[in-house]
Write a structure and sequence with these properties.
It is a single chain. The protein has 201 residues and is α+β, with helices and mostly antiparallel strands. The protein has 2 domains: 8-89 and 188-199, Ribosomal Protein S4 Delta 41, Chain A, domain 1; 97-179, Structural Genomics Hypothetical 15.5 Kd Protein In mrcA-pckA Intergenic Region, Chain A (Roll), CATH 3.10.290.10. Helix content is 42%, strand content 8%. The chain contains 9 helices and 5 strands. It has helices at residues 8-15, 24-28, 46-61, 65-77, 82-91, 94-100, 107-115, 149-156, 192-199; strands spanning 119-121, 124-125, 138-141, 166-169, 174-177. Strands 2-1-3-5-4 form a 5-stranded antiparallel sheet. Strand 4 and strand 5 (174-177) form a beta hairpin. The radius of gyration is 18 Å and the shape is globular.
Length: 201
Amino acid sequence: MARYRGPKQKIARRFKEPIFGPSSALERKPYGPGEHGRSRFTRKSEYAIQLDEKQKAKYTYGLLEKQFRNLYEKATRQEGVTGEVLLQLLESRLDNVVYRMGFARSRRQARQLTSHRHVVVNGQVVNIPSYHVKPGDIVSIRPKSRNLDLVNEALESYSTSKYKWLETDKKSKTGKFLNNPVMDEIPENINVQLIIELYSK
């Protein structure tokens, strides 16, 4: 399936946030890309602000428009606050869980690990990055893949107490998805209400 493979730092500069991780380019140029990036007088409409927030969420989690729209529609059908449910659905994607558990340094790397059959869920190899992990599920690196340098390097700098809804054992390269996170626990700077307003029009 198609993925955005263009310059990540241009996207980070567009939203003025390091959505793909630490960005030296954003530190050097804390303004948008292009000839109008430095302009102080660009006023955005309400629609443009809402669209930007949706695009930021899509790029952050690595989804295409159709996938994101389908998740929104799924969130509206579930019980609870739609915005919080949408974020929980994004957070419970397997590629995101692999990243959050510290087995990869980025969601892109986590997606590659998953699609290359290095990830096991409840004892079964799962190679679908969009697979939704449920509370109580055990996610681990496949035994044959536990010596991969990229996994070991990612775990070296990972703090096992980083996310309250996850449990990670660095030694066995195994983690548990304890529960769906509440909105306040999710560290991404996404105003989900703007996304709901956009799709509700």
